[in-house]
Structure formats: structure tokens, C-alpha cells
Amino acid sequence: MHNLKLEQVRKTFDLNEAIFKSIVKGFKTEYEQGLSTRSASGLATMIPSYVTTLPTGQETGTYLSLDLGGSTLRVSAVELLGNCQVKVTEIRRQISPHDPLRTSRATVFFDWIVDAIAELIDTIGYQQCKEEPLSLGICWSFPIDQTSISKGKILRMGKGFTIDGIEGQDLSSLFHKAFERKSLYVKVTALLNDTIGTLVAHAYTNPDARVGFIYGTGVNAAYPEKVNKILKLHQSEYQKDDTTRMLVNTEIDIFGSDAYLPLNKYDRLLDASHSQPQFQLYEKMMSGACIGELVRLVAIDLIRDGHLFNGHEPKEFEKYMAFETSTTGDIESHFSTDSEEEGFSQFQQVFHFDGQEYQVEMKDYRLLREVCRIVSDRAARLAGAAMASLIEQQSEDLLVNSTKPIVIGVNGSTYEKYPGMHERIHESLVAWFGPDISARIRVELATDGGSIGGALIAMLSEKESSKPRQATRTKSHPASPSFFGCCFGWLSVLRTIRKKETHETVTVDERK
After folding, report:
1. Which of 7, 43, 297, 398 is deepest in the core (most CB within 10 A)?
2. Are 246 and 230 in contact (CB under 8 A)?
3. d(C-alpha 322, C-alpha 129), whole Å
4. Residue 485 and residue 79: Cα distance in Å, rounded?
5. What is the rounded CA–CA span in Å between residue 66 and residue 157?
6. In 144-213, where does DSSP find H-type helix?
7. Span 372-428, pLDDT tens digits
8. Residue 452 and residue 168: Cα distance in Å, rounded?
């Protein structure tokens, strides 16, 4: 009877070739719709990055970067030493799923962030001059309507954040007001999405990178697109340019509808109880924030039918979103029969039955372990479908006119830490593209998108703003180069000296 019920669960989460094809097609349709939309307001997708300048590698000075994701705040001081050498000092602060900060007022939220920046400045012992503020590059994991390299209105949050009084506000202005409240002489000179930072950072080590993908608490992606297809760029020179590429923030987390996503009853239960129902449907099916909850919902069904824990519900399943994806990953980490006894021993420590004498049995472990596997298998294939669509969106550059490696840089805890996630994503790409093309595909871990990348773009923006407002041409620096061309040009130089870098890290795990 257990096996029959498990097969029903497996069928419920099935993502076969036909469904995979439908998702790839659906994503590509949404790319084109987003590119054809002139406004970046509301639930905008396909947002341009506005970065067009080159560094020389000889710049010196200290620049700040800030990276805010779904669960972590990271602030860094990047000291450019010249000769393409850097020194990084970093502070991290965690934001738990139920942290009151997630539903605080904007002033409280930004004061907390700026307090971390102030602590970082004290840590490095930086003596600010009164004439020039420290430049800050902000890697923002949430959508903004960006109108220049340093200006943009916040469209919405997401990833469990519902900050009061933030939507429609200029992000730089919110930071500058907080700097004034805290008496910090800092200036925001660059805004970039974390996916843009991921792609730039991965190109630091691999110039063949063509996709930046975030797969952690949330999900997003970036890739280079022809500027004449991005109608949000209203300048006439872009509309006639069919060769220049600019990195685009897809906002793929809000993609998806019943038209092509295989939403099952557990997806709908999760969505109905969420603080933002009918929003980010794709992300809720596969992100690190939701895999654990989907497993919990399936497990509750199995418990009610008497198949799991002999009908006893553990305390760990009592609350919505309380069963974390890290726990499902731990359960899966002992999937092989060689370590089954060790896995079962750890499994017994996970669950507690209030006022009940029930003892967890091996059959419970095997059943729930398989449920975890079924849910995470689908998550991997959903990530693979997005990556496949991003490759096909660049078909002219990657599939038709090139035989070079196709590199996808992925950043995020779900990709990095969930057992077998990398292998399963790659398997889905092999099944989709076949042996010849898939032999060229490299899915690789990307890091440093929010630190070195953010600080370098802050530096570039600062220098660009100090130039006379006139066009200049040189043999080595053509006018108006695309960010895509720029980042690979300067990153290929920087990568040769990466071994000389020094990284100093200060970590603060919890908010005080």
C-alpha cells in the first residue's frame, strides 16, 4: 500500500519531456514579451543593466559593496591595490525566515543595513576624507525600475520580505537618508541585480560564461541580449544597434502560469497559505525557501492516510514553512544503501512527537527520504528547464555560430549545498540538448558576484561620472562598448592575477 501511495506522489510531481518542452517554450515566450515591454514599472521582467565602461586594472582606492539576498546581508570593503590586486574585508548577517525585519518599516530595515556598513568601516579602520564619500555598489536581489547606473525605483520585494513604505521609492535615496541618520559619508554610485553580479563575477574566472543563475532561497537569471531588442532602452542609438549586447536581469522568479507550469495540489496549497499568493509561482515550485514546505505538505497527507509515522504527526510538521529545505537535504544525503543505518540514526533525532510514545521506524525513513528525492528531482528539472531556455534564447551566439563551451555560473545555497543538485540539473540539460551540445555545457559554481563585482562597478561608475560629458574614441577603447564586451575584456586580464588576491573575512552570523 505504501508503494502505491508513493507512486501517486511520484506521478503528481512528474516532469516528463513534454512538460519540460512546454516550460522551455513558455519561458522563451515570456522573454520576448518582457523585451517588448517599454516600461519597467509594476511586475517588470527583462530589466537592462546600464553598465558600459571598462576598468584598466590599475585603479587604486577603497570601494564598498553590499549584497542583500533572501537570507543573507553581506557588506564588503574592496581595496584596489593597483596591478589588478585586491583585498576584501567582509561582514555577513543572517536573516531568519521569521525575523521581524522581514516585515519592518523601511527606516528600520535600512538603518539595520547601514549599521552593518558602519561596522565594516570601523573594522577596516578607514579614515574618510571630508571631500569625497566612499563609493558603494549595491547588489540588490529584488526588482527595481532602473533608469541609470545608480538610480532606480523599487518595484517590489519578495523572498519573504514585505517592507512597509518601500515600493516605488528610489533605492539610492533610501540609503542616502539612512546614511544621513547614521552620519556616514557614503554615496551609492552603482546598482546591480545579484544575477548581473553573478555573471560578471563568474566571467572573472571563466570568460565563456553566458548565463548567470541564482538558485538559493530564491531564483533568478541574467544573460546578454542585443540592445536593439530591449525596448526599455529608449535611446535611439540602441534601437539601431544589432551587435552590442547588454546584460539583462530576467526576473525569472515571477515567470510562470497554469498555461505551462505543472502546478499540483501541493503547489497550490503552499501558494494559498503564502503571504504573496499567485505570485512567483515558478520560484515556489523549486526554490530553497519552498522545497521543505512541499515535502511537509506531502508528508502530512501520508500521515493522515496512515502511511507515515503510523498516523502520528511530529511537532516539526505543525507550522507552515517551518520544515526547512536544509533538513530535507540532510535526509537525502544518506540516500545510498551503504550509509542507510547512519542516515536512519540521524533521522531519528529530527522528529519529536509531543505526548506520544511513537518510535520512528526504518520504513518511515525510507518513505520520507523518497518523498524528499521526488520533490528535489522536480526542482532540479525546473532549474534545468530555465537554463535550457536561456541557452536557446542566445541560439545565434551559442548554438548556431559557435562551438565554444557554454558556461552557466550558478550562485546560491540550494545549488551549492543540496545533495546531487548539480548532477541532476546537468542530467536534465543532457536529456534536452543531446550528447553533442550538452558536451559543451558547463554548469559551475559562481561566487563573489556581490563583492568584487559590485565594488568594481561602483568604481567604474564613479570614474565615469567624473569625466567631461563628451564622446571620446581611442584605438583600445571604442566608443560605447557593451557591458558584455567590457566585462570579458577586463575580467580576462584580472583572472591572470587571481592567485595574488588576499581575502580577509569578518563574519557576524546573527543580527544583534
Report:
1. 398
2. yes
3. 48
4. 25
5. 16
6. 171-182, 194-205
7. 999 999 999 999 999 999 999 999 999 998 899 999 999 999 999 999 999 999 999
8. 28
